Amino acid sequence: MKANTHPNYVDCTVTCGCGNSFETKANVQELKIEICNVCHPFYTGNQKFVDAAGRVDRFKRKFAKKSAKTSQES
């Protein structure tokens, strides 16, 4: 291997928004994430709706505009 080409591999603390944290190895010492295996709906079986910054509402408005145009053209 060439010297000084690879980043440092250090212990990393990963902290989730739900409060769960665990240790792993990474290029940074600390990571903050939104969803982990403890709170993710796929692993918990609970259907938890996560809407980040109104994306669903924005999609519905956009889709409503397109469907209104196609119904007027008919």
From TrEMBL:
GO terms for cellular component: ribonucleoprotein complex; ribosome. Binds 1 zinc ion per subunit. The keyword Cell wall biogenesis/degradation does not apply. It comes from the Bacteria. One of its GO terms (molecular function) is structural constituent of ribosome. One of its GO terms (biological process) is translation. Pfam families: Ribosomal_L31. PROSITE patterns: RIBOSOMAL_L31. Its cofactor is Zn(2+). Keywords: Metal-binding, Ribonucleoprotein, Ribosomal protein, RNA-binding, rRNA-binding, Zinc. Zn(2+) binds at residues 16, 18, 36, 39. Binds the 23S rRNA. Belongs to the bacterial ribosomal protein bL31 family. Type A subfamily. Part of the 50S ribosomal subunit. This is Large ribosomal subunit protein bL31.
